[in-house]
Amino acid sequence: MRNLRLWGVVFCVVVLFGIPVFAQEKVTIRWLFETDFGGGWKVLMERFEAMYPNIDVEMQEGPAATNVREDMYATSFMAGESTYDMAYADLIWIPKFAAAGWIIPLGDRLSPYEIAQFLPGDIAGGMYQGKLYRIPSQSDAGMLYYRKDLLEQAGFEPPRTWDDLVEQAQKLQNPPELWGFVWQGNQYEGLICDYLELLWGAGGELLDAEGKVVLDKGTAAVEALQFMYDVIHTYKISPPGVTTYQEEESRHVFHNGQAVFHRNWPYVWTLAQKEDSPIRGKVGITPMVHKKGFQSAATQGGWGWTISKFSKNPEAAWEWIKFATSYESQKTLHFHNGYIPTRHALFADPDILKESPHYPDLWRVQINARTRPQHPQYAQISDILQRNIHAAITGTITPEEAIKRAAAEIRELLGQ
Ligand code: GLC
User: Fold this and answer.
1) Which pick of 25, 85, 95, 239 has the fewest CB atoms within 10 Å?
2) Beta strands of 176-265 (E only): which ranges?
3) 23-140+301-370: what CATH class?
4) Which ligand 1 atom is nearest residue 139's CA?
């Protein structure tokens, strides 16, 4: 009888206050990401820990390149370790992680109404075989930044085509103090995001709808790669060092006022508008340039939360995920780190609009962005492209040779 009464009390406590009160023992949940350069994550973790004194959230600040962190998570999961409770995942990792059974489905934890609050591309990027594995926290799409002040002085409209960009950059630049165009040319995933925008913007494709390699059909792939080579070596509007730049290296050049044009993700805008920014009020945004006669394309990027199958504390992880992807948390991350929200409603948030009046336009770019192939072997496909494209832009092999090799290697990988 006493036992029954005791369980009755326990039951009421759980129903009334939820699991966190019940789970008195303190738990730590861990995840790995890049440096918290804007400090937004720290603010969120402190807020969360104040609300949930039984849960410690530990963020490991790791390398900047997405593929390097992907390997770190994969190595740990492959060994069945519970080091990471959550993988904060780039959308390109999901098919691989889900197919390997390293992350658990989360779709049943949200109602269809809750799912509809998020941008469709970010939800699609978290799906594998009809199940949702990732709750989106941060959206991304590639775009072109330009120095509004310099273009206006020269009477230029923002460039639309590759030719416009080259012409304006050559007229306005004064290297090495002011370069024409900076982007991500290092041998890593970012190079592929930049390359695909040029490829799609010249009418080309990597794989067709059935997953067949079509990269080397037509001339677009070689033209796009030739353009990447030319901006460095022929038109000389990009510094030779661009072949070592990731996002932050290229952003620093632009942010310090040393470049006219800059391809990057939307976070650059918020950082450019900060009070101590040398280019505050001098920046415009336009869709990425395309080949004449074709259309602009943006690569869809973005980050979100998954729960590891090996986590010993999946429910604590879920509490954190709900908190970290909430309206208020995404707003905090936007103001500190410049992240792009994944919830439709934040694109019309009055505080965000005051600081970022371009958000309605950005929303349009976001929902039209294109995903990279959602394939469990995407990491290997990308690796093949990275090697060959980088060899071409550094002049080791020709663009023709690079595309021929890349297409053949990807066909072999996929057994085509
Ligand atoms: C950004 C994007 C991500 C992409 C990466 C490449 O972080 O959100 O999707 O893979 O850049 O560097």
Assistant:
1) 25
2) 179-182, 259-264
3) alpha beta
4) 8
